[in-house]
Amino acid sequence: xxxxxxxxxxxxxxxxxxxxxxxxxxxxxxxxxxxxxxxxxxxxxxxxxxxxxxxxxxxxxxxxxxxxxxxxxxxxxxxxxxxxxxxxxxxxxxxxxxxxxxxxxxxxxxxxxxxxxxxxxxxxxxxxxxxxxxxxxxxxxxxxxxxxxxxxxxxxxxxxxxxxxxxxxxxxxxxxxxxxxxxxxxxxxxxxxxxxxxxxxxxxxxxxxxxxxxxxxxxxxxxxxxxxxxxxxxxxxxxxxxxxxxxxxxxxxxxxxxxxxxxxxxxxxxxxxxxxxxxxxxxxxxxxxxxxxxxxxxxxxxxxxxxxxxxxxxxxxxxxxxxxxxxxxxxxxxxxxxxxxxxxxxxxxxxxxxxxxxxxxxxxxxxxxxxxxxxxxxxxxxxxxxxxxxxxxxxxxxx
Length: 399
Description:
Blueprint: H1 15-22, H2 24-32, H3 37-48, H4 52-80, H5 82-100, H6 106-132, H7 140-170, H8 175-197, H9 219-245, H10 250-278, H11 283-301, H12 305-318, H13 321-333, H14 339-365, H15 371-389
Helix pairs in contact: 1-7, 1-8, 2-5, 2-6, 2-7, 2-8, 3-9, 4-5, 4-6, 4-14, 5-6, 5-8, 6-7, 6-14, 7-8, 7-10, 7-13, 9-11, 9-14, 9-15, 10-12, 10-13, 11-12, 11-13, 11-15, 13-14, 14-15
């Protein structure tokens, strides 16, 4: 009798529905666990008395866990099976979100952020590998990966509704309820994610044995991913605090966050999924860095809702194109058995940048120049990332 964990996906199942179900993974992993923190941060700082370095350190704890989770994702997939590791990663992530709402202790919150970083990285990396194998080889592959990545924008947009509602209902202490509501939604999202994962063969996670692939030719991509991760996450961590400092109220900030999430989902799916599949070498990385950099500038050069929405549309429409480009390129240049391990190692580089960025940005934000200095760091890092990507050359797929 064939195990339900190893059966091939039914021929009648739409690959787009499967990719959409898998997208519940990044909804929780990044949309809720990573990026919703920016919306909760102002009220947490007010009630808990944090400076910006402490606030950035909390996301550094999350990113440190993410490094460990990304580095061990392939092991979890081999040990327990890709589907089980993907599903349990979502469950642990949901529990970490729920737990974050029941304490105000800095150390405990740091632990929950750290554990959530591990579990969400496992979910995101394995989900990415599953998403690369939903279709047969063909032009649809980049679009389906983009649909998976669009889950991040969906999560950001949902956070933009849920968290301001909690803060409006419960006031400055509403961050507790905000975390709990995100945890409940994360538990609910586990259902469609598990359904979708069961429609991808277990081997789809790239678990077949094979010789260790050479990744040295991807050195420029690794360098680009570190710098890009540090640059974009500094913006995502402190942008809401900057808008609050500029005088924007709760629901104006919520509108910004909803637009950012919607732009991310739409841009990743409708634009980048097609563009990335046509670009070779490091050109996709360069283009992504430049567009994201441009998206940071409006809120630094001007104040007001117009600048915020412009930033949300440009930055939001492009920032998840980075992971999309890396995943599509890994599928193109690495053998199938190495997709999980290759994506995992690249995600480690991304996580290193995400660990460094918020801490440095927080330290700069505590200086005399204020939070805008921290966000100018994003501009510098994104510019450096574009330069690093120019060195990446195209290589044919490995045999």
